[in-house]
Specification:
The chain is of the alpha/beta class. It has helices spanning 40-48, 72-79, 97-101, 103-107, 114-127, 144-156, 174-191, 202-208, 235-242; strands at residues 2-11, 14-24, 29-33, 55-60, 63-64, 82-85, 162-166, 194-198, 211-216, 219-225. Helices cover 34% and strands 24% of the residues. Strands 6-7-8-3-9-10 form a six-stranded mixed β-sheet. It has a four-stranded antiparallel β-sheet with strand order 2-1-4-5, covered by helices on one side.
Length: 253
């Protein structure tokens, strides 16, 4: 569904992406791993069109997403295919929970009536294990784990075809991390969406992934099924997934 060929991106003299090749099949869950500063978030932004690659191609269903000259309507239609769970949740402090979940439904292309949008928001909240009692609370009144679940409900509210998860368990304790991982896996399977997750949490990788790609040195060093990760011969991958201090990845930054 998503294909990247020879994608490069630099910021001044910092060459972040140096020829990324990657294929994400429809209906699969791809997890991108790699150390901090290796370009995982830049890669995601390139796919969404928030950052323009210096060269290379990115296609969605065979159509070049980096093509110039798209009208506002075309751009809106493209973005409507995506859902996003942001690393920090990115909930609007001034909106209550259900209004956060229904934000796209109310203010995007659909512009649903208030009652209809609220009904959908309550349904999505229930799907992530939150009852109607939280709908009228504000984000500041929720725990970190509840905020993350609200963010997940918002990501699926408009029934997207593709969902991006940016460090979905950051800041959560191990139990809540497990809850979020299980919810993501269930939702991706139920909805049949194509998922791309950025994380360095190996427990999340094993819980969420169908396929794994390791980004290092501006290129995808290894990609394959999550079941083949432990037996892969790539030394960069093995050092990363086992958290070893010694190996080809420099630990001094």
């Amino acid at each position: 569904m998503i294909e990247l060929h020879g994608v490069h991106k630099s910021f001044g003299t910092n060459r972040v992406l140096q020829g990324v090749d990657l294929t994400i099949a429809r209906g699969t869950s791809m997890v991108i791993i790699g150390g901090s500063g290796t370009g995982k978030s830049v890669l995601l932004k390139c796919i969404l069109g928030l950052v323009t690659p210096d060269r290379g191609t990115i296609t969605l269903d065979g159509q070049d997403v980096t093509a110039k000259g798209k009208s506002g309507a075309d751009r809106d239609a493209f973005l409507a295919r995506f859902g996003m769970l942001f690393q920090g949740g990115a909930l609007f402090d001034s909106l209550n929970v259900w209004e956060n979940v229904a934000f796209r439904l109310r203010r995007g292309a659909q512009k649903l009536p208030r009652d209809e949008a609220r009904a959908i928001a309550l349904e999505k909240l229930a799907r992530v294990g939150l009852g109607a009692r939280v709908a009228d609370l504000f984000p500041a009144e929720l725990s970190g784990g509840m905020q993350k679940r609200v963010s997940l409900a918002r990501a699926i509210a408009a029934t997207p075809e593709v969902i991006f998860f940016d460090e979905p368990t950051t800041g959560l304790d191990p139990i809540m991390s497990g809850v979020i991982n299980a919810l993501i896996r269930e939702i991706v399977t139920e909805m049949g969406v194509t998922a791309m997750t950025i994380t360095h949490d190996m427990s999340s990788v094993r819980a969420i992934a169908d396929q794994v790609a390791m980004l290092h040195g501006g290129v995808v060093r290894w990609t394959g099924p999550v079941t083949g990760m432990d037996n892969a011969l790539d030394p960069w991958l093995q050092q990363f997934i086992h958290g070893r201090a010694t190996g080809p990845i420099e630990t001094v930054r």
